[in-house]
Structures are given as structure tokens and as C-alpha cells.
TrEMBL record:
Entry-linked Gene3D superfamilies: FAD/NAD(P)-binding domain
Cofactor: FAD
Domain FAD-binding: 5-342
Natural source organism: Palleronia marisminoris
Coiled coil: none
Top-rank lineage group of the source organism: Bacteria
UniProt xrefs under InterPro entries: FAD-bd, FAD/NAD-bd_sf, UbiH/COQ6, UbiH/COQ6_monooxygenase
Entry GO MF terms: FAD binding; monooxygenase activity; oxidoreductase activity, acting on paired donors, with incorporation or reduction of molecular oxygen
Keyword hit for Acetylation: no
The protein, known as: 2-octaprenyl-3-methyl-6-methoxy-1,4-benzoquinol hydroxylase
Keyword Lipid biosynthesis (UniProt): no
């Protein structure tokens, strides 16, 4: 590729990187995006991401602008209520239950849920046809040298290109972040999470459920029917040793433990996909920018999977970055504007979710009582309920305006 043949180079063609590429191309930038992996053939493929994402309303607005929502929406299941349950002991016993509904915010749904492997597949296909996007899968970022006016990027296949801005959207072990010399803060909990899809006897009625117990939260998120049976996506957090034990169980024993952990809210449950296991951490980058370089999504922040904050926070990064770019997309003024806009929100959400995760996983009696009483208070006091729900939605500012080019 000739020098300056691309305006913006993005390392990482996960969901966040592809949404950013499409949005920037719609704004008129020439974008090159690469990733060493390729989309999975299906949910059973090795390495497929069996988590799901509830795309909240502000994120859907960004996807619509990028002309991607029309591709994702056929696979999306509406999230019409959030049921929060507290429990103690084993088998767990319910101690509190409250349901939050989107009509408190004037919405018909909090968001729409899509399996991550399916979204990855769908977005890859859309980007192959997107004007202004050069999508290179099977090729990764190797190194870069940043100058005052440009960055020289070397790819894993040995090719080199020049860009005015390099974006790290390449995950928690971001090669771009490392090349830029940006360190991270990391908080470990000794927890892991299981991600998978299951079927169940009772319909989910488009309700997502968060169930707290010692070890962490279990989250069920509604999916379309699986082979004619009601289905949900599950993220089950627990202490690392317990997750290892669960992952080694035979299917019948695992299904029995799953049904118990979910407090039988949807009747008997059966795992419908392989299990994926990953560690739970809170990780934040110590800086969001360097010369001709910017970080978004999990290159900038990794959060425990609570309250649909992870990818929705990443899409807020994407929207803000697109608004902050100037005529020269790598100009320090625009990158500084992005960092100012996102740093406080990123650190605030990381701190809040860190504290919430510690509260949710505690097995101490006084803490469990506080957790149950707090849930009741948040739900039963209407102004507080709306404020918490708005914070969870992470609504993008209504006065977003694109910077002049």
C-alpha cells in the first residue's frame, strides 16, 4: 500500500473494531482494518464467542448511523424487562426480587440481544461490501513507528502501510497498546465465567435475569428459539475453582446445577452449546492516546460482565472518537478531546462495576442483607430507579456533533 493510502488503520476486527470501521467510513474516512483471526463458521467452531450482547438503545443509534443495524436486527431478540434476584446458600434460596421495565424511560425495550459469534459473522460480511473499508482478515498488527505527521505500520504478513491514525481495538492484550508503551491497571478477583447458550422449559418472555449469589452473578439473556425450544444466553460467574469443577461435569449433572443456580425461573434448563471459560478482571489503560494512536473498547477497558456494560461502553468510545476526529484524524487536539471525554466515564464505570461485583459475590451475611435491601430500595423509589436505569443505559450525549473536517 502506498504512503498515506489509508486515513485510519484499525487493529482488531472484533465487533467493536468493525463497528468503528463502518462508522468512520460513513463519515468519509478511508479505513483499513486487520485481524489475525477469521470469523467462526458457527457456534460450535473452535474459538467462537458464545457470549451475547444486549445492544442498548444508545448503541443501536450508533449502529443505525453506521448502516449496520439492518444486518444485525434479523438475529436480535428484544430485551423488554430486567429481573434482578438475590439469593443465598446452596441450593440457593431467593431473598429478593425486583423487575425493571423500559417504559420508565419511555422505551419499548432496553435493547436487543445478539449472540457474539453471529454478530461477528454478520458484520464481517457487511464490511466486505462497505465502501471505504479495506478489511484484511488473517493478517494482524505487528509493529508501528509513530511520527508527528503519520504512523508507519507493519503487518504480520510483512506488508507495510502508512496511516494518519492508528486505532487499537485489539482486545485486552492489545498489541497496539503495547507498541505505544501504554501500561494498564488490572484488578483480579479469582473469578472465572462460563458462557454458553441453553434451552429451557418455560418461555423467557423477553426478560433478562440477573441472579446474585456468593461467587458472582449469573445472567440469562433471551435468545430466539433453539431447535423449537425457548433459549437464553448464559454468563455464569463464580470462583475460579468452582467454574473449573462445573466445566468438567457430565451434561446431566451440569444441567441440574444450572437449573438450581437459576432458581428454576424458567423450569429445567439444558446446555445447548459448548462452554467457553474466561477470567474475570477489571482492566483500564493508564492512557487512551499516544502519538498518532488511540485506544478503544477492550484495549482501553475490560469490565466484569454485569449490566451489559462491556460492549455498550465500547460503542460509546466509538461514537465519541468519531465525533472528535479533526481534518487530520491523528491530530493531537482531537485525540486529547477524545481522552477527556472518555476517561472519566471509563474509570467511573470500572470503579462502579468493580464495587458491584464485590458486593454481588460476597457470602457474608451482613453484606448479603445489604445487597437485598439495596435492590428493594433502588426499585421502590421511582426517581432513584430511573436514575440508576439511565446510568446503566450509558446514554450518549444528545448534543453529539461531528467535529469539522
Amino acid at each position: 500500500m502506498r504512503a498515506m493510502d489509508t486515513d485510519i488503520f484499525i487493529s482488531g476486527a472484533g465487533i467493536s473494531g468493525m463497528v468503528l470501521a463502518a462508522l468512520l467510513a460513513k463519515r468519509g474516512w478511508r479505513v483499513t482494518i486487520c485481524d489475525p483471526s477469521t470469523p467462526p463458521d458457527g457456534e460450535a467452531a473452535e474459538g467462537s464467542d458464545l457470549r451475547s450482547t444486549a445492544y442498548l438503545e444508545p448503541s443501536v443509534d450508533v449502529l443505525r448511523e453506521a448502516e449496520l443495524w439492518e444486518h444485525l436486527s434479523p438475529d436480535a431478540t428484544p430485551l423488554e424487562a430486567l429481573r434482578v434476584m438475590d439469593s443465598t446458600g446452596w441450593p440457593p434460596q431467593q431473598t429478593a426480587l425486583r423487575t425493571f421495565r423500559p417504559d420508565d424511560l419511555g422505551l419499548g425495550a432496553f435493547g436487543w440481544n445478539v449472540m457474539n459469534w453471529r454478530a461477528h459473522q454478520t458484520l464481517s460480511a457487511a464490511l466486505r461490501e462497505a465502501p471505504g473499508v479495506d478489511l484484511r482478515l488473517g493478517t494482524g498488527f505487528a509493529d508501528m513507528t509513530a511520527r508527528d505527521d503519520k504512523a508507519f505500520v507493519t503487518l504480520t504478513d510483512g506488508r507495510r502501510l502508512t496511516a494518519r491514525l492508528v486505532v487499537g481495538a485489539d482486545g485486552r492484550a492489545s498489541p497496539v497498546r503495547e507498541a505505544a508503551g501504554i501500561d494498564t491497571r488490572i484488578q483480579r478477583y479469582g473469578q472465572k465465567a462460563l458462557a454458553f447458550a441453553c434451552t429451557h422449559a418455560e418461555p423467557h418472555q423477553h426478560v433478562s435475569t440477573e441472579i446474585y449469589n456468593s461467587g458472582g452473578a449469573m445472567v440469562t439473556v433471551p435468545l430466539a428459539d433453539h431447535d423449537g425450544r425457548a433459549a437464553s444466553s448464559i454468563v455464569w460467574m463464580d470462583d475460579g475453582a468452582r467454574v473449573t469443577e462445573l466445566a468438567r461435569m457430565d451434561e446431566a449433572t451440569f444441567n441440574a446445577r444450572l437449573t438450581e443456580r437459576a432458581l428454576h425461573v424458567m423450569g429445567p434448563m439444558q446446555r445447548a452449546t459448548p462452554l467457553r471459560v474466561w477470567p474475570i478482571v477489571t482492566q483500564t489503560a493508564r492512557a487512551l492516546t499516544a502519538k498518532r494512536t488511540v485506544l478503544v473498547a477492550e484495549a482501553a477497558h475490560v469490565l466484569p460482565p454485569i449490566g451489559a456494560q462491556g460492549l455498550n461502553t465500547s460503542i460509546a468510545d466509538i461514537a465519541t472518537l468519531a465525533d472528535c476526529l479533526q481534518e487530520d484524524p491523528g491530530a493531537p487536539e482531537g485525540l486529547a478531546r477524545y481522552a477527556r471525554a472518555r476517561q472519566a466515564d471509563m474509570l467511573g464505570r470500572a470503579a462502579a462495576i468493580d464495587a458491584y461485583n464485590r458486593l454481588c459475590r460476597s457470602n457474608l451475611g451482613p453484606v448479603q442483607k445489604l445487597r437485598a435491601e439495596g435492590l428493594k430500595l433502588v426499585n421502590d423509589v421511582a426517581p432513584l430507579r430511573r436514575r440508576v436505569m439511565m446510568a446503566g443505559m450509558g446514554a450518549l450525549r444528545s448534543d453529539r456533533t461531528a467535529a469539522p473536517r
